[in-house]
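Can you give me the bound-state structure? Components:
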Amino acid sequence: MNRTAFDPTLYLVTDADACGDRGVAATVRDAVAGGVTAVQLRDQRATTRAMCRAALELLEVLAGTGVALLVDDRLDVAMAVGADGVHLGQSDLPVVAAREIAGRGLVVGWSVTNLAEAAAAAALAPGTVDYLGVGPVFATATKADAAPPLGLDGLRAVCAVSTVPCVAIGGITAARRAQVFAAGASGIAVVSAICAARDPRAAAEALRGRAAGQAVAEGQPAR
Amino acid sequence: MNRTAFDPTLYLVTDADACGDRGVAATVRDAVAGGVTAVQLRDQRATTRAMCRAALELLEVLAGTGVALLVDDRLDVAMAVGADGVHLGQSDLPVVAAREIAGRGLVVGWSVTNLAEAAAAAALAPGTVDYLGVGPVFATATKADAAPPLGLDGLRAVCAVSTVPCVAIGGITAARRAQVFAAGASGIAVVSAICAARDPRAAAEALRGRAAGQAVAEGQPAR
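Here's the bound-state model for the whole set.
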């Protein structure tokens, strides 16, 4: 299978609730038009079959865009639908086992929430994980069970020890974009900032730093 | 990996709630001592990591017993822990995709709840599924979203069209055992009948038809 390369610059994590009546597929389509470079399908309540259907729908939306699709938690779903990768949390499959099953062809991402987990990731055999999801960097209401925020200093420390690209997640806004990249992140991941936006395309453009004349200009202090 | 052959004669599906304080591992150990021939780990609420841990614990309990361990729904977990197989429902991974990922080494079981699903299973390429879970045969309180009971006639019809062994599930008791096998089942699967039993070993013995002098003797009409 011909897999799409993973570009972490602006990584959209889907949330069906936040996407609302617009739906996940339409949100993703618009967000990609606005500059999203990677998409993670995340739905912790769907049945496996429903998740397969949703993933296949997104693969169709993403066909020809060069945007990779990853699946949260479910390596089996990722492999069954031919997605480009899987994103694993600390409560998901052990990444070593996942890499063994997936082989070299799939992107494997791993969430780290603190420096100790980042050090554990750095100690893995090269090629076990392809990137780290690092967060929450800022406080976020999206994930009820999120760890304490790392802050920009915490993010910087994690990026410094990591042997793979780091994607910052948690409370990232267009206004915080520059600070996050300055701390060493290779990309930013968002959920609500795009899924709950009235205009996902404009939201993505702003998060890419492309929206000249935005009320909140890039590089300004957060908030 | 050396996998254990799947013997469907008495197939225990675990339920952590029903096992209660005794725990799943102790229940399985006792049930195997009583004659359980296959075990399916089922936990639709656990995190992936917790499911891996539970599966590894059961693999330890089952080591050397010749009893196969299957994992409900989660092919990724089954592969990650080196279980013997996976059991898929109609809302889980498509079985063709699962077989492709799993290769020949894993047992793949599939739930069918009616004759149409059984016919679809029979139309699959040989080797796609290794057995069918057929049910509910009788009404059961264990599965809230269960389909309407097939009854013994429905079970007989499914067994007649199936190209693989059929394991009957749903309201199976020691008293109903003989009827179910007479209808063409190669095995019986139970959840509460063992997990919620005060003595899982004795319950398993009765379900194997080994407990002479039981109040409810084998072959008697149900209820």
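A couple of observations. DSSP finds ten helices and eight strands in chain B. Residues 121 and 134 of chain B are 11 Å apart (CA to CA).
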